[in-house]
Amino acid sequence: MSGTVLCRGASTQDQTVASRFAPVLYFEHEETCYPVDVGYFVQHSELYHLSSLGPVLVDATPTLTSLGAYQDSSYYLDNQLGTIADSGIIDDYQAHRASLGYTVYAHVMTSGQGTIIQYWFFYVFNPGDLNRHEADWEMAQIQVQGNTPLMAMYSQHQQGQKASWSLVEANGDHMKVYVARGSHASYFRSFSGKLGVASDSVRDNGLVLQPTDYTIEVLDNQSWLSYGGSWGWAGGNQSVSVEAALLGEAGPQGPQFREDGNMWQDPLSWGMALPQAQQPLFIAEWFVYNFLVFFITGAVICLVVLAAVIVRRSRRTGLGPRVFSFLYIDGVNTKSIGNLLCVVGLVLTVLAVFYPWYSVSGRFTDAGQTLALDNVLVIDAFHGISANFPSSQGPVPLGSLVIPFAYIVLIGTVLCILGTIGISQSRKLGLRYFWRAVRLLLPFLLVLVFMLAIGQLASLVPTSVPEAAAPVRETLTAISHAPFQGSLSMTLTNPPGSVLSMSWQLGWGMYLLLFASIAFFIAGTLEMTAQETFYEASVLSETTQRES
Q: Which of 21, 113, 137, 165 is the most exposed place for a label (fewest CB within 10 A)?
């Protein structure tokens, strides 16, 4: 790689190692924040202490040197350029981005198992989909033995992934890190993020930072590393602080304090405990990432085949006076009632995609104050499955599967309507209704099976968030035992005496799909029973057949 990597701090040996394995960073084109020197954030912040009476201003002009004296977690830096409710911090950063440049922090540790080089990235704001807060610390690390890379470990929210070096995309010794838009989680592939712990937007169509494009500062004994408070606003009082943490609105702690210090003090153990990324996972992520393309391609092929069938049907028997066979409704008779139920099924199907399919919500009560927790788990037709659980470190992503069921259902409905063109016999139309009933029943059964097996998701809760493990396990187990509807209340140990109440229910969208499936099944039965012919073959078609 051409150019010189600018590196400062610590020993010459650490500088050399940090430069040699420095990552290449790929950003999504709508990203607004990039790795920057922490001094810029501190320069525009005030330091507060969070007491029982509310926030107390400690220092209106803190410095990187003075921060080291405040090692307790009850402190927080509040950036005065904006709040979590506006874009003031991002706007100022964008205005000064050219002069600020880019900074990456490196932490080098050597043991009998080789050398671990951590690369820490500081962002002034986190406008993520899962949470929104001032400042953001993310990290990617590499394990090397001598000069040979062995493994890479990337942080993703409260968890992450590890991969052997053979599965890591790299430019020589420089691992490629694909940064999620807004949340800044690190991924191994540009198509990752839609399958796994959170629904992140990851692509390689934006800024690319080569090691020569940023300054590396090796972390050693900088005073600000000892600062134990939050980087960013953390609440107006202790109650609001708890609320801010649960909603992911509180700023994170610095590198030495992440995951109770485990990421910094024992990076290899932290990394080895992460889920292993395998080639089958990358294939699945690639498929989910491109699912819409595959689905549209499949839908187009189906339309072409269906058009050919309709043309052939038109030449053989004509298309009949009403073209669409489900429109043969003429009086009170078996055939007409069946077709009327088909219309009812079509309407119910369309309505189903606009209502929730499943929802889990909760209420958190502490010191007499109640906080509503929405979207703990949501299944809907447009966004698929998204699950996260509140904890004192912010929402803990449990899993997501972004499959646009709405497009599958709606395009399937269009194909169902088109498929009735020119059908002359009620028996054949009844068979189409039967198949439509089965296809509509599948999403209902899939969601139900998922909820019955949801207790298995408890194993995905990061060990770094122990206070969330027991409530998650209890909640998911209760849901799996009563998947249609239920509620649960539990007393938490952190904060002491607080109460978490959870409730869940099957959404109207699922019931509408079930009713639509039943309507199509009955319609199919009636059409099969009717044994009627909707229209006779046209004279033109019969003549054409004799000539051919």
A: 113
**With 50 as the cut, is the pLDDT of residue 547 above it?**
no
Number of domains in the chain: 2
Same domain, 250 and 383: no
Which one, of 185, 197, 391, lies nearest residue 275 by Cα?
A: 197
133: closest CA among 263, 241, 261?
A: 241
Length, in residues, of the chain = 548
pTM, two decimals, is 0.81
Looking up tokens 């430069």 gives 19
Q: What is the pLDDT of residues 147-186, one digit of tens each?
A: 899 999 999 887 789 999 999 999 999 999 999 999 999 9
Q: Check whether residue 245 and residue 322 sit in a common domain.
A: no
Residue 190 β-bridge partners: none
Asked if residue 73 is part of any domain, the answer here is yes
Same domain, 348 and 262: no
- In a shared domain, residues 166 and 315: no
SS (H, E, C) 462-508: CCCCHHHHHHHHHHHHHHHHCCCEEEEEEECCCCCCCEEEEEEEECH
**Element spanning 412, H or E:** helix 405-419
- Domain boundary residue among 224, 241, 275? 275
The structure tokens listed for 301 are 């092929």
Residues 73-87 as b/e (b if ≥16 CB within 10 A, e otherwise) read ebbbbbbebbebeee
Range of the domain at 169: 6-275
Report CA Rg, the chain.
29
Same-domain pairing of 254 and 142: yes
What are 68's two structure tokens? Answer: 């080291």
Does a structural domain hold residue 540?
A: no
